[in-house]
Amino acid sequence: MARQSLRENLLDAGFRTIWNSGYTAAGVRDIVAAAGARPGSFTNHFASKEEFAGEVLERYFAYVSGLVEKALARDGTPPAGRLRRYLDVITSKLAAHDWARGCMIGNLSLETAVHSEPLRLRLVDIFERWRKPFAECIAEGQAAGEITKAFDAADLADFLLSSWQGAMLRMKVERSPEPLERFKNIIFSTVFGKETMR
């Protein structure tokens, strides 16, 4: 088996460190130590901590994209049911961390967007890519008469992602699933519910 490169070790260690501590608290020394690398090795592979964090974000987004693809897969479940399935999958992941961790994309959006233009632009791009499969699923639900056509599918996808991030923020503050369940109950009784279509 090929040995994992030092660059990959650093990215793996950075993923864990940023995920657990956040961007600001995750020092380069901490990341290097967690990777079992020598001091100075970080700059051999990454031009800056911002560039490094951008690659960590892409790794996280690849993970999330896999969850999205699986949850929204066309398997006979109606579109609104597939949207609900995604939120339920994420809820189970959040439960495993006692409602304290949230989403790395949301966490770094709050922490870095004001202070780092490169990371802000990276996050803008990630949200645009993230929105696409949700917009496609919502458009399918609109075509089937299951989801309201009062709003554009892409706007509804943005609303879903933004509101869900807000619910996760409250979840972390309260250390409780109640904000998540409240959000799901309301959105699937209104925007993504049959009641809206009457």
Automatic annotation (TrEMBL):
Q: Which residues cross the membrane?
A: none
Keywords attached to this Swiss-Prot or TrEMBL record, sorted alphabetically, are: DNA-binding, Transcription, Transcription regulation
Q: Which InterPro entries match?
A: Homeodomain-like_sf (IPR009057), HTH_TetR (IPR001647), Tet_transcr_reg_TetR-rel_C_sf (IPR036271), TetR_C (IPR011075)
Segments of the chain annotated as binding DNA: 27-46
Does the UniProt entry include the keyword Transcription?
yes
Coiled coil regions in record: none
The yes or no answer to whether the keyword Transcription is present is yes
Per the database record, which ranges form the HTH tetR-type domain?
Answer: 4-64
PANTHER family the record matches: HTH-TYPE TRANSCRIPTIONAL REPRESSOR NEMR, TRANSCRIPTIONAL REGULATORY PROTEIN
Q: What is this protein called?
A: TetR family transcriptional regulator C-terminal domain-containing protein
